[in-house]
Amino acid sequence: MAGRALVLGGGGVTGIAWELGMLAGLADRGVDLRDADLVIGTSAGSVVGALITSGTGLEELYNRQLVPPEPDRPVRIGIATIVRWGLAAACSRGSERMGARVGKMALASVTVPEAERRGVIEALLRGRTWPQGTFLVTAVDAESGEFAAFGKSSQVGGTEVTLVDAVAASCSVPGVWPPTTIGGRRWIDGGVRSVANADLAAGYERVVVLAPIARGFRLVTGAAAQLAALRKRTRVALVTPDAAARRAIGRNLLDVARRAAAARAGRVQAGSVTAEVARVWSD
Questions:
Q1: Where does residue 115 rank: exposed (0-12), middle (13-18), buried (19+ CB within 10 A)?
Q2: pTM of the model
C-alpha cells in the first residue's frame, strides 16, 4: 500500500503537549505531518490525532498547551497501580490474556464516574467528529482483552463508535480513569497492548512515529520493536523525547503543571530531528 502514516503514541497529559510541540516545530521547518494518509492514535496520541485532523491550526493547538492549568487535584499513576499492571503482565501468556487481566483490575478500581470522565474528553475535543481522512484510535476490551482500532465507520454491537467514544476509550488508563462503555462493552487504554501500535501502519511506504514512551514492558510492545519489523519494506523514523524533553516531562505523565514545559521542549527538539523526519516523509 502506497502512502504515508503518522503514528502518535501514548504518554499522558505531557505526552499530548510534547507531541503537539513536536508537530508545530516540524511544521515550522517545512515538514507538516498532517499530510498523512493514515493517522494512528493511542491514548494521548488519540487526543492529538483528533485535534490535528480537525482542521484547527497547529499554532492554536500548541498555544493551548501553554495556558496555565486551572487549580485541581493532582492526578498520577500510583505505585500500587503500576505493581498491579506488572503482576498482570507477569502472570499472562499472550497480549489478550494480559489485556483481560488489566481490564479486570480497571473494572474493579474506584475512579471518577464514567460520565464525568467522558465529559472531560468531549470538552477537550470541542464537538469534533471523525475526520474525512483515515484516522484510527486504539483500545482494548476490558473483559476479553481483545484489541480494536476504531475508525469513522466502526460499530460495536450495532452501536456507532463516535470520535468522543473512541478517544475516551483509548485514554481510559486502567486504575486511573474508568473504562469507557461502547455498545454494551467496556474499553480501556490502547496502550495496554502497545505504547504506539505502530504495526497498524504495515503496508505504508513511509511511517513516522512520535512516541513519548518508547519502551514496552513484557507483553506491552514498544515502538522500536514494532518498527523493526516494518523497516524491511518501509522507510521509518521514530522520534522520542530527548534528555531535555524528558526533564521537562518529568516522572508524572499526568501532571498538567508540566504541560507547557513539555510542549516547548517538543518544539525545540524538532530542530534536531527535522532532517531525519524529512528524509522519510518528503525525500
A1: exposed
A2: 0.93
